[in-house]
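#random but structural
TW: two for the price of one
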Amino acid sequence: MGDWPKGAQGGGLGTATLVLGIVSLVLLLACGLGALTALVGVVIGIVAIVKNSNRSRAWVGLALSALALIIFAGFMVWFANRVGDCLNLPPEIQRSCVEERFGIRTGLNP
């Protein structure tokens, strides 16, 4: 009466990897925090593949996490190229240099 049918052997790690891969891309585009979840997704994805835990989802999640890390790295390289020269300037004119590079004005400069 109280017997529950046994389901398939768990694939929680593979599913977790897939979810982390999707969340990584969304968070990366929304607020830039996707790189952190992508790192966790890569680690859990590798563990899931090694343990044979829902490998298909683990591979897709691993690919999405890797894509998020590649996008993040590309953005950081682009940002460093745009702002790198400004960091060598005296602190009082760094803000105006960054504003000029990105075409924005904060109104904080005298």
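TW: number two ↓
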Amino acid sequence: MNPASRPVGITVLGILQIVRGVVSALLGLVALGGGAILTSTIASSAEETLAGGAIMLIGAVSIILGISGVILGIGMLKLKSWSWIGTLIVQGLVILMALVDLISGSGLNIISLAISGVIIFYLLKPEVKVAFRR
């Protein structure tokens, strides 16, 4: 299947994953740098040093997830079957985290839950599976 015959929804998902990945990686770099500054220059107590380390960890995870998002997005645009599987796994994890958030009493991730559900529903449609040779 060439890009001209690729379903529009796959193109949209691929582009959105790339954009989200770049934003996530950039925010991760900011968090990594901010955490490093907090830990090395501003921190005056053990708690502040620990907070700086936690911010750096969150930044590193954001960078890894961002790079993964870019790779998955490019794979979606190229109709690679591994990107279909990877996106299903990532969206499943997002749903799991959103459900944990809901159970804990916060409803902040309800939108993420809904969006991930729609993405999984779309990726499991027969015509989309065919595009990824599934």
